[in-house]
Amino acid sequence: MVIRDLQTNLGDGHIHHVLNIIYNCCRRIPENRVMCREFVVTLQEYSQSKNSEIQAHAFLALSFIVDKSEIHKISLNEPCLKFLLLALKSAMSEPDGRSRVGSYSTLEVLQGLNQLAINDCNKLLIVKLGGIDVLERILMEEGSNDEEKLWAARGIWQLAFKEENKVNIHQRSKLLKTLKKIRETTENCDVKDACSGALFVINDVFDIDEEFKGHTPTRGDRGPSSVKREDSPGHVEGHIMISYQHASQERMLQVKRHLEESEYNVWMDVDKMKGDILDSMAKAVQGASVVLVCMSHKFKESQNCRTEATYAFTLKKDIIPLMLQDQFTPEDWLGALMGMKKYYPMFSDDRMKQCLPDLVSELSDRGKREKLDLVVPLLDQVTGASNPTAHAQRQGGGTAEDDVDCSGGIKDDKPTGNEDGGNSRPQKAVDLVTWDEEEAGEWLRSHGVDTSKDSFKKVDGTRLKQIKQLLNLAPEFCLTSLKEEFGLGIWDVLSLVDALKKLSI
User: In this structure, are residues 202 and 169 in contact, taking their beta carbons and an 8 Å threshold?
Assistant: First the structure.
């Protein structure tokens, strides 16, 4: 009914209200966007109106409706964008937070500008007309709420994907200090993530839209524009990284399990990481042998995914595209990044099963993990537990305590060869993955960890191994998960981490 009203001879005032309703319906409820697809042409006509207010309403509605292959349809003109920025400033100045220009709230304009900034021409125009100044003001003002700061930071993040904008923003020391301060002091995880993302792109990621367009780095390509990776502690090197949007998580977990069964080290953000997400992502990209980029509309629209994939491209990492959506065509920045690379369709169970062997063949030895050979303590000696699988052949006298330290590794000061008169007693290596839940529980308790909680009932040797790898790969995320998922107190966490670090892997 509302849409049909647009196709009748209404006055400007009525058209303004109808377009505003459509915009808010599409902004708040994604399902409405599909329903409004058939009215793109009508909205386009209104976006060319001589009335800047009607133009703005039409562009805002279109920005949530157009298909991503139709981004050119939301290219703004200067009068329209000036109207939107004026409306934003007006809303910020009013006690009720609602503009006297266009009747928008601060949040409505911020979310609309973020959506319009998907168009690269709009990115440049927003900065040209002073949009950064307005976003900076929102971040700095004490009266701004968390949601307004969130969208202001996301706006800066989005704008910084254009190299020209990034240079401009990088020169704004006050803005950078504000982003850092908010990131360090806010208790809102989404606001922290947005500030981290903006800072990461501003400081580290090169523009993909122009600078790298048409250039697809080949395997082993390390040209002068590549960024040197520096070693970082607590980080697993040479893994396969899965870069995906969380709507694809279930399918990518299947791919992850298959690759791990094929003896690959796999890094995947299984749960939305807390803490410094971008820092963990950066370390994961830096240490990756190959990055699997899981392409879909949602991946392409995600600022986190764009940051991640662009960073991998910038470091000239080997990238293998996986297609997670049928009939999806990578365009814009994602199309430029992927170039003519061969992709593997994974959008259905059947296609995934067909392609996994080929993917493994493509990966070859990149990201392969060495066979896990752990030397562990004899649990029946150290803890009193019965553990037939852990018995080792021993020669000569002495006890298990003579050969192992409290962490389960061979003592570094143990004499070798003939230094002890030929009486060295080799310890039998035992795969950690052979431990069942009872044996893993005994080991945990022997290191002072309270395993009475239900969350420990499924922890076996394989799980201990995974926790150990996660501790090396993403220590902040691992520590948070141990506290929240397992309900461990700080002393239990410290005891477990200390024991895991001393395990010889």
Answer: yes
